[in-house]
Amino acid sequence: MFRKSVRASTPPADHHLELVDLFTKFGSAYSRFVRLCIPSRPGDAVTAPRLSLLGLLMTQGEKMIMSDLADRLGVSSRTITVLVDGLEKEAMVRRASDPKDRRATVVEITPEGTAVAKRLIGPHRANVATLFEIFDPEETAALAEMLRRMNARLTDAGIDTAGVSLTDTPI
């Protein structure tokens, strides 16, 4: 359907344009909210991107090629390097050469990184969930179904919607 670029063949309906505007505002505000929900203690060096990286490593078998991490997190190679550098400095991940491809670098979560992720992911998800307390169970189910349909549409358009789901993180 949309494989390479997306171009509207007809002018969009006004109610669809309203959703574009609302999602643009919501997406930015939601990202800020998610960052504010990370439980922290004095001295913690865990940011939302770092926690996402740790969570992704936990859900994907504890090791991933650095470029694959960047793709899944939706960040540049420079950004993933900075994230891994910081986590490596804190002894939460370590780098190794990929035995199958010496040009690639594998990032592996350490026991320290696993402990930090396990300590933070559950409370973080609970904090983020407070945003949805305004919905009753029926509204929650309806919103969840609409988001699943939108994800399916994006997937059909060739867009990777896997992202990072902390739901599957073994806590």
UniProtKB/TrEMBL annotation:
GO terms for biological process: response to stress. Residues 16-152 form the HTH marR-type domain. SUPFAM superfamilies: Winged helix' DNA-binding domain. It holds the Pfam family MarR. It comes from the Bacteria. One of its GO terms (molecular function) is DNA-binding transcription factor activity. PROSITE patterns: HTH_MARR_2 (PS50995). This is HTH marR-type domain-containing protein.
